[in-house]
Amino acid sequence: MNLLGLHHVSILTGKAERNYQFYTNILGMRLIKKGVNQDNTSSYHLFYGDAKGTPGTEITFFDIPGLGHTYPGTSSISRVSLRVKSTVSLRFWKNRFAQAQVVHGEISRMADRDTLIFEDFEGTKLMLVADNGEKGIASGIPWSKPDIPIEHAIIGLGPVTLTVEALEPTAKVLTEILGFQHIGSFPSSENGVPKTEIYSTGEGGAGAEVYVKTRPGLPKERLGRGGVHHVAFRVPNEEEFSYWVQRINKFGFTNSGKVDRYYFRALYFREPNGILFELSTDTPGFDVDEDIDNLGEKLSIPPFLEAKRGEIEASLRPLKL
Question: Would you list the DSSP string of 204-234?
Answer without folding.
Answer: -SGGGEEEEEE-TTPPBPB--BT-EEEEEEE
